[in-house]
Amino acid sequence: MLTEPLVSIITVVYNSEKTLEQTLQSVCEQTYKNIEYIVIDGGSSDGTVDIIKKYSSDIAYWISEKDGGIYYAFNKALAMAKGELIGIINSDDWYEKNAVECVVKEYLLCKGGDVFHGLLRFIGEGDKPDSVVGHYHTFLSNGMIEHPTCFVKKSLYDSIGHFDTMYRSAADYEFMQRARKAGARFVFVTQLLANFRRGGISDSEVGFLEELAIKRRYGVISKLKYIKWKLFVKVRKYLQSN
């Protein structure tokens, strides 16, 4: 590449000794090398910190301390990130080896882009590949953009702000809706970029209800549809408990 912009990558972790090393390796072994890697640990009590220390020579900055939750940790990292592009990969997930290289190539070709995202492989039980997905033009109305594949221009974060910590699960979705409302340009990279293990709070009822509220807040769904979906969740919860 003629130019190699700095790319910041953020991993937030808490008690993930079983999966963290694969995440760290996937960043440290990228074919693209101009990477600033930031790891924020929420004060883990298992072997997580020892694993981070093992890769400390490839990590620009890491810290282990209690925080207010995942989005507080993301915001802490975003405040110190210096890269033109910023990617976030959680401690259960991992990048394909050429993910950053693919994104940077697209970034250099498409100077007007603000958010770059691509194909995501879901990983099911027994760490077996499940399906590969990638939303195009309707991703913000039909479902969440594949956030582990996202690389966002630092200037966009500087312009519209970081994650809204009132949300426990769906602040990434709210950020993307906020970006869309601000006129951000989304660029789809037609490459497999990341792998995502199913499970966690984003797959829970909390995650669904938060995403539903965000869709209503940004006018993606009508008030009537919002009420119907909330009623459906309440009825389902009642039936499951009886």
What proportion of the residues is helical, as a percent range?
Answer: 25-40%
CATH class of the largest domain: Alpha Beta
Which runs of at least 5 residues are low in confidence (pLDDT < 50)? none
- Architecture per CATH nomenclature, i.e. the level-2 architecture of the largest domain: Alpha-Beta Complex
How many domains make up the coordinates? 2
Strand fraction equals 15-25%
Q: What would you call the structural class?
A: alpha/beta
Radius of gyration: 18 Å
Mean pLDDT comes to 90
How many helical stretches?
A: 9
Distance between the termini: 61 Å
Q: What is the third-level CATH name, the topology of the largest domain?
A: Spore Coat Polysaccharide Biosynthesis Protein SpsA, Chain A
Instruction: Give a quick account of the main beta sheet: strands, pairing sense, barrel closure.
Output: 9 strands, mixed
Annotation, overall tally of beta strands: 9
CATH level-4 homologous superfamily of the largest domain: Spore Coat Polysaccharide Biosynthesis Protein SpsA, Chain A
Order of helices and strands: EHEHEHEEHEEHEHHEHH
C-alpha geometry: globular
